[in-house]
Amino acid sequence: MNDIIKIFDTTLRDGEQAPGCSMNVQEKIELAKALEKLRVDVIEAGFPASSPGDLESVKTIGGIIKESTVAGLCRALEKDIDAAKEALAHAASPRVHIFLATSPIHMEYKLKMTPDKVLENAVAAVRYAKKFCADVEFSAEDSSRSDLDFVSKVFSEVIKAGATTVNFPDTTGYAMPDEFARMVKYVREHSIGIEKAHFSVHVHNDLGLGVANSLAAIGAGADQVECTVNGIGERAGNASLEEIVMALKVRKDYWKKDTRIDTTQIYPISRLVSKVTGVKVQPNKAIVGENAFAHEAGIHQHGVLANRATYEIMSPESVGITRNEMVLGKHSGRHAFEERLKQLGLPVDPKNLDEIFMQFKILADKKKTVGNRDIESLVLGSSSSSIPVTWKLDRWVTNADASGSSMSAIRLEARDGGLREAVHLGNGCIDAAFSAINNIVGKDVTMEMFELGAISGSSDAQGEAIIKVSYNGKQWNGHGVSTNIVESAIKAYVAAINAMESDQRQGEEKNLG
After folding, report:
1. What is the DSSP string of 51-101?
2. Are residues 240 and 158 in the same domain?
3. DSSP secondary structure string, 233-279?
4. pLDDT (tens digit, 9 = 90+) per residue, 183-220?
5. Which residue from 299, 321, 377, 461 puts its CA 20 to 30 A from 363's CA?
6. CA nearest to 146, candidates 164, 177, 171
7. What is the pLDDT of residue 372?
8. Can you tell me the distance from the alpha carbon of 415 to that of 38, in angstroms, rounded to the nearest whole number?
9. pLDDT tens digits for 88-104?
10. What angle do CA 431, 378, 350 make, to 5 degrees?
């Protein structure tokens, strides 16, 4: 039994499958780099056979990531494995991840295959993948509702065929923790050759037990857990990476296990995933929620002031939340600003640092002090994003009256430096502004989701807007911040338009190629 638990992150694959969480190639690259910095052991970059875009994402990420294994998911089909072979050709440490269901309900109604045929296909797929990839993982989909002797038999045979990791998923989040632990223990004990492979679990959160079941599996001998940042994923999501990692770290006395994860990168990557997907983290979310280290009750505040350990079992700093008391304002210099960026673990391309510092100065002129959340939003919402800027907000004006009639005038700067302007009436300032932007870009883009919130609780707080738009059946996210809530919404809409334009331009370039 290993003392180091491998963290297999599937944010870019299973996480992206959650409704509304799709990501473009640039966003996946940005997240993959952050996952590498987080020091996850395996990054499941996508499902290469599912679409040309996914194949391209896995191929690009495989060529960039050097410190983590890059995995591509496949069905037990040669054409899927061939797609993974192409996608992982330049990966420093590639893994082919093959899955095939083993539960009676899946075999009868989805696969329409007998158990013998499932076993035959599983072994054949692993053997085929081993021809070009030494690291092959096999997942018995819906293991927790399968016959355990059958799963043990499948695992025994795929290990004999060359599988280096076998995965026991609770695909529907059906199992109870003690029950899941017994299942893992039984299959480990009855799988021949298990000592030659890693034993993994992949747990969904349908009953809110994803993390509990993952930890129970670790206690029963699993040495790899598959999870996602913020717990995003299909239906109710996956087991949450940050909760599993911190449970092992904070209660190392109990588990006697650890991970390679740099926990100070947890909060920054949580914010990045939220920005990229457009899905906010609930305030009471463990580890990374806004209230995770907040104390309002008087008795709690008194205890924390006397000794933080009275009510905090981990420090904010341990997960990357800086509690630096140095105030940043309009008189702060570049050195202090860059030092705060380092403390917050925010990645900034040096070529974009001048622009971000300028935006900080502009914000500092509007606010008395600039907090950590303000700085995070500046970086995450700036042009330091990997998405190329097609349109840039140059000027905006809105007018409204008590009758409900509103007018917005928007001027955008195009990639070629030209200025385009439009004036539109609408049902409110924001509706009018979005219609004017649609007029400028020449596309009838539809807004699917619009969330507006304050970054801090002060009266001069920045407004943070998260927007999801759709066009021709596809969706894109945008993020914007400003001390003016209308401007934050306009910036978020323009950011979503830029993501759309970038995707479409890449598609056109591929077609020409």
Report:
1. -HHHHHHHHHHHHH--SSEEEEEEESSHHHHHHHHHHTTT-SSEEEEEEEE
2. yes
3. -STT-B-BHHHHHHHHHHTHHHH--B-S--GGGHHHHHHHHHHHH--
4. 999 999 999 999 999 999 999 999 999 999 999 999 99
5. 321
6. 171
7. 79
8. 34
9. 999 999 999 999 999 99
10. 135
Burial of 450 (0-12, 13-18, 19+ CB in 10 A): middle
Q: Do 328 and 317 share a structural domain? A: no
First to last CA, the chain: 50
Q: Which range of residues forms the domain containing residue 377?
A: 324-382
Diameter over CA atoms, the chain: 76
Predicted confidence at residue 261, as pLDDT, reads 98
**Tens of pLDDT along 141-178?**
999 999 999 999 999 999 999 999 999 999 999 999 99
Instruction: Tell me whether residue 1 is in a domain.
Output: no
CB atoms closer than 10 angstroms to residue 399: 11
Tokens of 130: 């081993």
d(CA 389, CA 276): 16
- Report CA-CA distances (Å) from 241 to 67, 233, 259, 287, 296: 18, 12, 11, 10, 27
Single-letter amino acid, residue 212: A
Least confident of 44-48, 92-96, 277-281: 277-281
Query: Is residue 155 one of the residues assigned to a domain?
Result: yes
Strand partners, 70: 43, 94
Q: Determine contact, residues 45/61, Cβ cutoff 8 Å.
A: yes
Asked, for residue 105, whether it belongs to a domain, the answer is yes
Q: How far apart are CA 42 and CA 12, in angstroms?
A: 11
Q: Are residues 310 and 348 in the same domain?
A: no
Tokens 């070529």 map to which residue? 351
226, 79: one domain:
yes
In a domain, 243, yes or no: yes
Note the residue count of the chain. 513
Instruction: For 189-240, give the DSSP string.
Output: HHSTTGGGSEEEEEEB-TTS-HHHHHHHHHHTT--EEEEBGGG--STT-B-B
Q: Are residues 43 and 118 in the same domain?
A: yes
Is the distance from CB of 343 to CB of 337 less than 8 angstroms?
no
Per mean pLDDT, which of 269-273, 333-337, 341-345, 475-479 is the most reliable? 269-273
Q: Are strands 406-414 and 391-400 parallel, antiparallel or unpaired?
A: antiparallel
Query: Does this model's pTM top 0.90?
Result: no
pLDDT digit string, tens, across residues 109-138: 999 999 999 999 999 999 999 999 999 999
Residue 420 belongs to domain with CATH number: 3.30.160.270
